[in-house]
Specification:
Elements lengths: L4 H15 L5 H4 L4 E5 L4 E2 L10 E5 L7 E10 L2 E12 L5 E3 L10 E10 L5 E10 L8 E10 L4 E11 L9 H4 L7 H8 E8 L2 E4 L5 E2 L6 E9 L12 H4 L2 E13 L8 E15 L1 H5 L9
Parallel strand pairs: 1-3
Antiparallel strand pairs: 1-2, 3-6, 4-5, 4-7, 7-8, 9-10, 9-16, 10-11, 10-12, 11-14, 13-15, 14-15, 15-16
Length: 298
């Protein structure tokens, strides 16, 4: 039975590729809604990055039946337009806009709102609001669980560790959408997908070596290497199982372990390391541990 573990492992990975079909992001990943209060000229919540969002405008004044909204990047040499000035009619006492863009983290933007105020004799009112979608420490560091395989050990083992991302990543982002909005191509997606990996292998599920493998520490063997986020999702516009496939990573690196000497006449173990590869999935600590997980927030 043990010799079939690598085959079953590859079949599991292949099934995830098959699942990535016919996904509607508006069904599985509804956009957050941010309200703008025209009376106080404030937004109701921080802006997300790497994710589309809805803008709802309230309290724009009596008699105002349409507004014009533009979004631009607040660059050093001026505002760079990202969304051209768009007219929004009044609908059920609200002005609602869904910009077809995703903000970058820690980058300043300007949202410009214009409307004709009947109470001021038809004067044009212009409101400019500076907004920034800030990242958090937890957007760089994720805890992963999964399985790995090594040809030298000839076995499958559990992998538990920490992924340090090269760039902040919003868990609610859709890589399938980002791949079509300025991050298409390996070079642009590299910071979003690549990560450094360090962890432990606490459990050897299967091993078929002549010399038994022993744990390097009481908590298991040490693993380290590199990760690649969402290897089975995000290169196309849709995928039916985004919530399942996007947190997955391909990991590759080295496992450090103790192994008995091949000569049975020589006692003791020797520290060795060998290449391994595997698949892991990052876990939302706040969901997994509830209030305890909040300590991972900045």
């Amino acid at each position: 039975m043990r010799k079939f573990f690598p085959f079953l492992f590859l079949c599991f990975s292949f099934c995830q590729v098959v699942l990535a079909q016919d996904y509607d992001p508006q069904v599985y990943a509804p956009f957050p809604t941010i309200e703008f209060n025209g009376k106080t000229e404030t937004f109701s919540a921080p802006f997300p990055y790497g994710q589309r969002f809805y803008l709802v405008f309230k309290g724009m004044g009596t008699g105002v039946n349409k507004i014009r909204v533009a979004i631009g990047l607040n660059a050093v040499d001026g505002i760079v337009p990202l969304m051209a000035e768009t007219e929004i009619p009044l609908h059920r006492e609200l002005f609602k806009l869904s910009p077809n863009l995703a903000l970058k983290p820690n980058t300043p933007y300007v949202i410009t709102i214009k409307y004709v105020d009947p109470a001021s004799g038809g004067a044009v009112v212009t409101i400019e609001k500076s907004v920034t979608a800030y990242s958090k420490f937890s957007d760089y560091v994720r805890v992963d669980f999964g399985l790995g395989y090594s040809g030298l050990i000839k076995g499958v083992f559990s992998v538990t560790g920490v992924q340090l991302s090269l760039a902040p990543f919003n868990r609610e982002s859709d890589l399938g959408y980002l791949a079509t909005r300025g991050t298409r191509g390996l070079i642009k997606q590299f910071p979003l997908r690549a990560s450094l990996y360090l962890g432990l292998s606490p459990l050897m599920v299967s091993s078929n070596t002549e010399s038994p493998v022993r744990n390097l520490t009481g908590a298991g063997n040490v693993v380290y290497g590199f990760g690649w986020r969402s290897p089975f999702y995000g290169y196309c516009d849709s995928g039916r199982a985004r919530a399942f496939l996007q947190p997955m990573r391909l990991v590759a690196g080295w496992i450090v372990f103790n192994q008995n000497n091949a000569n049975p006449l020589i006692s003791g173990t020797k520290v060795k390391q060998t290449f391994y590869a595997g698949v892991t999935c990052d876990i939302n600590l706040n969901t997994l541990f509830g209030p305890v997980g909040k300590i991972f927030k900045p």
